[in-house]
Amino acid sequence: MSSSAEPQPGRTGGGWPVRRPTGMLVIDPVPLFREGLAALAERTPGIRLLGMTGNMHNAVSMCERLRPDVVMIDAVLDPRCHLGQLLASGDDAVSVLAVVREPLRHQRYLATALGAGVHGIVLRSAEPAQLVDAIRRTHLERRYLDPEMAALASGLGVRHTMTARQPLSRREYQVLQLISDGMENQAIAKALFVSVETIRTHVKSILRKLHARDRAHAVAVAFRLGVLVTHREGPVLDVPVARTPAVANGHAGEQLPRLPHRPLLAATGQPVRSTPISRPAAR
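User: That's the sequence. What structure does it adopt?
Assistant: Structure tokens below.
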């Protein structure tokens, strides 16, 4: 039997297993918070930011494309945990970490999140080191509860029923999004590269699960339940983070794409021409 003082194979000095970096997808409507998490991931060995978005309707397609280990979801953006449940049940390799703001720091939300299958819950006010710990433990242990939320968990069962309605599948969620954008079945089929008959089947399933009379009623019910939300921000840039070679701190870094240069405009709307500064002749 090996002594407890001996180093265990496959573990670092900090006690975390040596493995590939934990891929993270951030879904949060606040640009400053997203940028803060991007900076935190860049300086933290073992965590790689794969992408970020402020639009929950793009989250499913980004998750399918980027295949993250952990998806961080702002709780205010998904208060009833419909998106969290969708991602948690759609892929066993994905762990969902809910980032909770003060308005949702109560037992009712905690019960909803646990019932939806959310793996980790951390307060938005947590220190950076605690956020890193929450990301790692959510991925490795598939469970994490912020210590300040632990008291609210007393008296709660392991699982709770989120809603009496059967949850939508990933594809049904995508179809519902496109229906809310005013697209007809043929256009939806073309966008998702499936047949029109397949879309009709999805629409029928959506109507049944939402107890809706027709497509318009389904969209109205979805907004009322929080399955679909109205975004109050302007256009959001969904950023799959470009991978770059190893950086100075010894781990693979991530670099956000540069925005295109736009000329400075004067009040007239015309480009401002720069005037070269004349230098005095050398004496």
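The domain at 170-225 is CATH 1.10.10.10 (Arc Repressor Mutant, subunit A).
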